Amino acid sequence: MRVRVLGVDPGLTRCGLGVVDGGSGRTVHCVDVGVLRTPADEDLPHRLLAIADGLEQWLDRHRPDTVAIERVFSQHNVRTVMGTAQVSGVVAVAAARRGLPVVFHTPSEVKAAVTGSGSADKKQVTTMVTKLLKLAAAPRPADAADALALAVCHLWRGPMLRRMAEAEARAAQLARAHRARLAAAAQQARTGGAP
Fold this sequence. Notes:
Layout: E1 3-9, E2 14-22, E3 28-37, H1 44-62, E4 66-70, H2 78-97, E5 102-105, H3 107-115, H4 122-132, H5 142-190
Cofactor: Mg(2+)
Subcellular location: Cytoplasm
Binding site for Mg(2+) 1: 9, 143
């Protein structure tokens, strides 16, 4: 069964987009990769609108099953992290409007998934993405490679995360049933065994 993931490396100046199909096991195939760009001297609302419009075109063209977004993490530059967070929100809303699941992955999760090391540098990520997807050339700029890495990360981590969520839901269900039995036993003890 094929699963298609749109990976998004959010950014106001450059927003990386990568679409990857996954099959059985760890088979992955690059469908498309690119970058949405907005000029730094343009007003924020217009930049966000341009990204939203470009993203809508990608969603229409590629029809992904899931959208994987890089989770915003603390940076020294507050303006950069704010812009990244705003773009992440735009992407999440666009996906939610279409009923698509949205998953956030940290940079270290992505690096670990594609290189085996959560502290890999951008060059290592780009090299591994190029090899894994059997690309003729490395995706440029790094935002494009990062978007592909996000999609691959989700394809490989998604089944494990789904199994963990199912196990947690089952454990919660068992805990509720156990509490109900305890409450019933306590009630019976208080009433002396009377129904």
